[in-house]
Each structure stands twice: as C-alpha cells, then as structure tokens.
Amino acid sequence: MKTGHTRFFSNWLWIILLLPCSLQAQYQKTYQESFSAASTLSINHQRGELRVVPSPNNQVRYELNVTFDARSQEDADKVLDAIRMDAQSGSNRLSLTTETGIKNMQTVNGRSSITLENGTKIRGVKDLEMSLVVYTPKVRELVIEDKYNDIEVADDLTANLNAKLYSSEANVGRISGALTLDAKYSEIDFQSMGDADLTIYDCDITMKGGGAIKLASKYSDFRATTVASLEADLYDDDVEMERVEGTLSITDKYSEIMIKACGNTRLDLYDSEISIAEVGNMTIKSKYTEFNLGRAYVIDFDVTYDDDFEVESATSLTADNSKYTTFVIDELTSKLIMESYDDEVKINRLGSKFSELSFNGKYTDLVIGLPGRFAYQIDMSTKYGDLKVDEDDFDFTRWVEKNGQIEAIGKTKNAGTQSPVFTIRGYDNNIRIN
After folding, report:
1. In a 10 Å sphere around its CB, with 0-12 CB exposed, 13-18 middle and 19+ buried, how is residue 58 labelled?
2. Strand partners, 206
3. CA-to-CA distance for 122 and 78, rounded, in angstroms?
4. Which of 71, 232, 297, 430 could disulfide-pair with 215, CB 3.0 to 4.6 Å?
5. At residue 291, what are phi and psi to the nearest 5 degrees?
6. Residue 154's Cα: distance from chain center in Å?
7. Domain positions in the chain
8. Torsion angle of alpha carbons 313, 317, 323, 327, nearest 10°?
9. What is the C-alpha R_g of the chain?
C-alpha cells in the first residue's frame, strides 16, 4: 500500500524527468550568400533536403535553413556557431559544402546530446534539420555529394551531372549532357539525359530516356523507357525496359530482365530469367537460364548449359556447344546448326523458305514440324537412335542398319536437287520430322 509520502515522491520524480523536455524550444537560422556564376557547381550537403533550382539572375545563391530543438539560447548559439557554409571559388568552379562542426549525435533512453568537433558536448539538442536551396543559372557540370537526404534538381540546369549518393531519395529533371552516378541504398527518378555511367548498389532507379547507358548494378531495381544502348553488368537485379534502340550487352547472375524491344544483343547469363519481346541478332553464353523471347533474328549460342529456351519466331539458330537444354521454337524460318548433348529440341514449324539444317547430337530428342508440302532431302549417319518421317511422302535411295549404325539418304517425293538438305549426325538421337 502506497503512503502519502510515497505518492508525493513519485509525483515529483515524474516532474523532474519531464522537466528537460518542457524547457526545450525550437531554434532557427538562415544562412545565405551570393556568388558569380561558374561553369562547374559542386554541392556537398548533409542532414537535410537539397533543392537545386533556377536562378532569377546570372548569380549563384544559397539559402541554408537550420532548425532544431535545444534547452536554451546559449546551447542553441553553440550549435549555430559551429554550422557554416564553406564556399570555395576559382578556375570557373564554385564549391559549396555544409559544415556542421558536429562530431556525433546520439539519443539514449529518449535523452539526446550532441558533441561538436571541438569536444563540446551539448545535452538536449535534437531534431536537427538543415535544408539547402541553391539557385543557379545553367552550368556545364553539376557535382552533388549527399547522404540520407531528399534531393531535387530542376529541369535543364546542367549539361552534365556527377552525383555520389548514399541512402538518398532524388528527383532529377532533364539533363542535356552526360550523367555519372555512384549510389547506394537510394531511390532516384531521372527524367532524361545523354550518355550515362551508373554504379549502383541496392538502389531503385527509374529513367524516362537516355543515350548510351553503362550500368554496373547489384541488388537493384532499374526501370527505363527508351535508351540509345545499354551495356550492363548485373547481379541479382530486377530490370525492366521499354526499348533499347541500339545494341544491348548484358553480363548477369541471378537477375530478372524484361525488355520489350532492342537491337543486336550479346548476353552472358548465369541462373537468370530474361524476357524480350522483339530483338535483333543475338550472341549468347548461358547457364541455368530461362529465356522467353518473342520475335528474333539470328540466334547464336556460344555455350548453352541446362537452359530453358523459348522463342516465338527466329530466322536462324546456331548452338555450337549445347548441353541439357530445352529448346521450344514456334517458327524457325531459315537455318538450324547445332552441336547437341542430351538436349530436347522442338521446332513447331519451319518457314516455307527454310534452307539449311545441320545437326550433330548425342542423346538428344529433335522434333521438327513442317509447313504443308515442304520439300527437303535427308543425309543421315548416326549410331543407334531413331528417325521418323512421313514414309508415304518419302523416297529413300539408301537405308542401311548394321551394328547399330544407321545411314539414310532420301527426299520427299516433291523434292529436287536444289531442295534443302537436312544433315544429321550423332549417337543415340531420336529424330522426328513431320
């Protein structure tokens, strides 16, 4: 049972604990200065929002607005005296760096304190925000270095942008020139730029348009509408693009890639998932990868190993070194050249002007669908295995089976000497043509 003395002591204890909070007030100061315009503007900011906006004149001006809570005017003055904007100009370059004079800030059990670089410790300072607005005419190069803040860069303020960001959220307007980006743990929305060199880690990037894009990425989401070309080195990323107008080059592990249209393409993939609706010529090296393609032209596999490959239509397919891969091709219009080991190959339909088939395989199932009244010739030499054709429409001039060796030469009844020849070699393959 609590006595009156106990209740009295408890009430005063709560008053004492709450007293520091009740004494706190908000303090504010704005720092500002103007400079002559420079071709290169460099901004290094921390602890608050950064906005880069058009200047109403041919000068650069900054406004640094500082707000925080403190227990007294004396404590507030110590903090404000430590904060300044370091401005360096020369050689047609202006550098702006926010200097807080703060060594560290910490909060323990709801009690906050700040330690300045000169060793002074101030208790009760919290919620420090330093928002910076930089007004500038258009510059040749804008350099931004920022951590933990929101960033906004207005349209057409710079030809070139060089940004180093850490745990930031940025919205960047049109850039007429080149972009260089080094970012970690950031979300960035770009409008458009010229060429770009991006190095990102665990970021979420969107862009509406760009020139030649070079991308090195890990654990990131990358979205783009239209770019001139893309060279990407990816690791466990998620990539979606509307259109790559020129060449596409991707080296990847473990990523999911979706592209609606691109030009000629080089792929080096490991355990990836890739979907392309429309693509030009392709050179591919892949392992454990799932392909889902729409319309393609020349497809050339340097190596394919244990992949799943599906394509709606292609002009030709060449696979010089294929193992354990499943191919499903809805239509192949011109040519098939394959060195195969234990694959499954299904071509639903050859084009009416299909001209060449050269197959050398081991333990592979090859199924080929023919258009109506398609004329062709067969030259087959294989050990073991099986060949099935429409015997009612086929004339064999040679068929020899001896000790597991099968040699067959023949043609459809409507074939001539100029009809395409299906050359088949190998060991224990199952071939079906119908």
Report:
1. exposed
2. 189, 223
3. 8
4. 232
5. -110, 135
6. 24
7. 264-434
8. 10
9. 34
Q: What is the pLDDT of residue 81?
A: 87
Per-residue pLDDT reduced to its tens digit, 343-394? 999 999 999 999 999 999 999 999 999 998 899 999 999 999 899 988 888 8
Output DSSP code: residue 351: -
* Digit-coded pLDDT (tens) for 207-222: 999 999 999 999 999 9
Q: To which residue do tokens 């197959």 refer?
A: 359
Give the count of alpha carbons within 13 A of 178, CB side only: 9
> Is the entire prediction scored with pTM above 0.85?
yes
* % of the chain with per-residue pLDDT over 70: 94
- Mean pLDDT value of segment 124-146: 92
pLDDT at residue 20, as a whole number = 47
Amino acid identity, position 193: M
Q: Position of tokens 């410790």?
A: 121
Structure tokens at 72: 């007294």
Greatest mean pLDDT among 65-79, 251-265, 372-386? 251-265
299: helix, strand or coil: strand
Closest CA relative to residue 329, chosen from 278, 355, 292: 292
288 vs 146: CA distance, rounded Å: 40
Buried b (16+ CB within 10 A) or exposed e, 2-37: eeeeeeeeeeeeeeeeeeeeeebeebeeebeeeeeb
Nearest to 70 by CA among 100, 113, 101: 113
> If you average pLDDT over every residue of the chain, what do you get?
91
Find tokens 């089976």 and name the residue.
Answer: 401
